[in-house]
């Protein structure tokens, strides 16, 4: 199995591809990181739990997509029209199994007000989600590690298991992009999860270098330690 | 002529009542205290998610537009949800971004930030009709028996309030800003007294005004010494980045309540109370930030809490 299209990690230059085994490891860890960060409260699979989003009972399509949404953007209906189009076009089961979201929001510095803000954001999302028939699970970026990515309001990352690339789509989406995403989500067989599960034990010991400015940053909530692990890579 | 003692007593009592009432209404407020009497919506229930507009009828029922679930909700005097109407869409009785609400008699008037016209519901939240209007609306007040005062974005030309009838036909216009500085989607908030005079609080100018129906200026007030709000150039448009005032409402005595914006000591919380003649009487502070002020016919004050999840109703106590 080819790894994802990761071009750089840590301090490596874009022109110096990583050694193949390491690339493979990073690719696997990246997917695992994604799965874990989408459900921060779920313990690691190594502790007897399965990661959300990439379990053995994966439905019809094998690819997954990941929304990064800025909480402030949800008040702008035209801005999120492509999200609603996508949700309407996807069967509920596909939304629930193959689509994930992370909601980014700003927060005041003091702890008490930050906790209140976190509750307010959750409450409002609950109303918004029901009114718009959004079925995909959302994780709340309480640590604000994704804030710098949310400038455009919304971002979609699609993990294409066939090509082993991660595709980035900025909002608003074109009709062609929307159709491409739909096709990729609805087609294909289930991904080979055995390989991912074999690698899970290594995750705790993996610490990449600081992220670069042009790279996408993934954060993993390690649930127990509350430390975040950053993974950087270039998006194709 | 002899006057019977009973009649004399009644006359004296009547004079006392009338004079004491006139003294109360004419007396200038020195201080306003607010006492919470009702709170609707909390972090733990599903009553409200992001309320935008509020209105109360003569029976004490409270109507609220909720921008997060695209609905119009009716609450009883105890704050219990009685009925909910509307959903996302552009069909009859549907909303894309519900915003302003007003109540008159048996009718509720609602606007949508993303669609033109005014949606009319009855007090049971049954959708009745859409009043056509060609522009988006950022101000709405029900006036008199068959009149609505509306304000639209200012693109070019003067800023004005347009009075329309229930069919959307223009009855008259009142110009409040001859030369606006650039494009403003939302430039002012307004209240209208029973005589039909306008009270205008400018969102991005330090200016509160009373104008007659004809547009003639009665008085103008600057609470921040004419201080200008900060502006920023975004895509060649120069746009304000903070507000002077956020909303204006009248109490039953004609006093003018203005919610302060970013220039206030406590932004979105300080309320300035002006006499009907425009004199600053006092200031008080809301417990939480609010985007609007609403005073019902029984003189209860409504404002926001928890970033729009909670609606607070206060009794106002004048000293």
Can you give keywords for this protein?
heterodimer, A: 236 residues, alpha/beta, disordered N terminus, B: 319 residues, mainly beta, Neuraminidase, four-stranded antiparallel sheet
What would a concise description of this structure say?
The complex is a heterodimer of chains A (236) and B (319). Chain A contains six helices and seven strands. Chain A has 236 residues and is an alpha/beta fold.
User: Looking across the biggest beta sheet of chain A, what order are the strands in?
Assistant: 3-2-1-4-5
Outline of chain A, from the CA principal axes? globular
Q: pLDDT average of chain A, as an integer?
A: 61
Q: Outline the biggest β-sheet of chain B.
A: 4 strands, antiparallel
Largest sheet of chain A: 5 strands, mixed
Number of separate helices of chain B: 1
Description:
The complex is a heterodimer of chains A (236) and B (319). Chain A has 236 residues and is α/β, with parallel strands linked by helices. Chain A contains six helices and seven strands. The radius of gyration of chain A is 17 Å and the shape is globular. The model of chain A is unreliable at 1-59 and 194-236 (pLDDT under 50). With 319 residues, chain B is mainly beta. Chain B is 7% helix and 46% strand. Chain B is globular. Mean pLDDT of chain B is 90; it is low at 16-26. The interface between A and B is medium-sized, with 15 and 19 residues.
